[in-house]
């Protein structure tokens, strides 16, 4: 009994840590639990019903293994750590993700695992496909692209592209982000589960998707090869090429797979084809290969059969759930749209309010200015009214003055007409006087000429008479007659002198008459000149009065219009030229 008492009690439970793609969980498991008990607990915790794709993987030495469900956990080659660490991962991959993956959680776990394999370069992906897949990953994480929220640099902390792709091109992180964002902006309206499904649909077409690779040899001394196991079958690759298999064995063409220690045998369904054998150096790896082959073949056969009741219920529930979520997304989208419209309307109303406030402020300022302007205009109107009255009064005075000037102008015109008539009469009189003066001058010239001729004739006659008297008179007195008495001689001489005296008296009388006529002519000319000077002075006074009247009338009209302009007199040269010529002619006369 003492020996038994010294023995330690065996613990009834052990600690387990399960790491999924997005969480870590710790469980306390009973010692007797099998692998299925732990796996079911994890699936229930995660909420996963499509359990046939997943398994619990652990690391042993330099390889990995999957926890077997039919054996107890502690009886397998699990690590002796506390807690024991397991990774909850997809063990088998579907052929067509859109048709086989029913639950959203299943899609999400597959999406996270495939994304990690691409980023870790376990699955080769071209740069173009990497950018497109990254855009769907961003859509699944951040939702719809919003330029106001998703500023440049918002992807700086996210790992989205394989390092091989980043090193292949000499591009900065901002340039890669710009390329990813350009695709990301086109995925607007896609929900998270839809974006993850689009990601998986692109990834399932990659050559290394869902393939588990193992190092093998075709015989014990031959070259190394790679065995690939996936949902389609078995593939043989060269060691340096995991993309294009050298030989493939689809599950539909395989009749049996067996192994004995390190040798694998693949028997084709067609008996005419050769059996393919290959070798693996590790027994643990051989068991893993066989386990993956059996699981993938079972799923391959299961896909070709009618879905079980459980799967049908799951698909129906998933369909209803998708429809419900789709409706919720539509309602949410409508509410979001309505909220955005309401926010836009609110912003518009606020903007309109600010605008109306500005307009009201401007209107108040304009009203104040208009009131000031109205007061000023009222004052100006009053001033203008007074000025209008003054101008009306001046206009009335101007109108009276204009009428007076018109009457004066009419009188002036009548006087002007009379003066013109007088001028014409004076001109005619002047012409007559000129003609008469010329005639008188001619007559005076003739008279002067006749007088000169008479004087010359008288002088010659006197001279001849004296000569004859001197020569003839002594002879006659001596020879012909007796000497006359002195009285007789004196009488003859007296008679001769009387005749001479008579001629002298005529000449004097004629000269006196001519002088008298000349004096009368000079008196008439002087009287005519006086009349002409008087007429000229009257014409000048009339012209000056007419200019003053025109200037006064123009000034009154200008003042009535509200401005004053200096009167300008334009001489009527054409109208007064006749008057000036006549006055010049009269002055000459």
UniProtKB/TrEMBL annotation:
The keyword Cell membrane applies. Keywords: Cell membrane, Coiled coil, Membrane. Gene3D superfamilies: 1.20.5.450, 1.20.80.10, 6.10.360.10, Phosphatidylinositol 3-kinase Catalytic Subunit, Chain A, domain 1, Pleckstrin-homology domain (PH domain)/Phosphotyrosine-binding domain (PTB). Residues 315-464, 518-552 form a coiled coil. Pfam families: ERM_C (PF00769), ERM_helical (PF20492), FERM_C (PF09380), FERM_M (PF00373), FERM_N (PF09379). The keyword NAD does not apply. Its main location: membrane. InterPro entries: Band_41_domain, ERM, ERM_C_dom, ERM_FERM_C, ERM_helical, Ez/rad/moesin-like, FERM/acyl-CoA-bd_prot_sf, FERM_2. This is FERM domain-containing protein. The lineage of its organism: Eukaryota, Metazoa, Chordata, Craniata, Vertebrata.
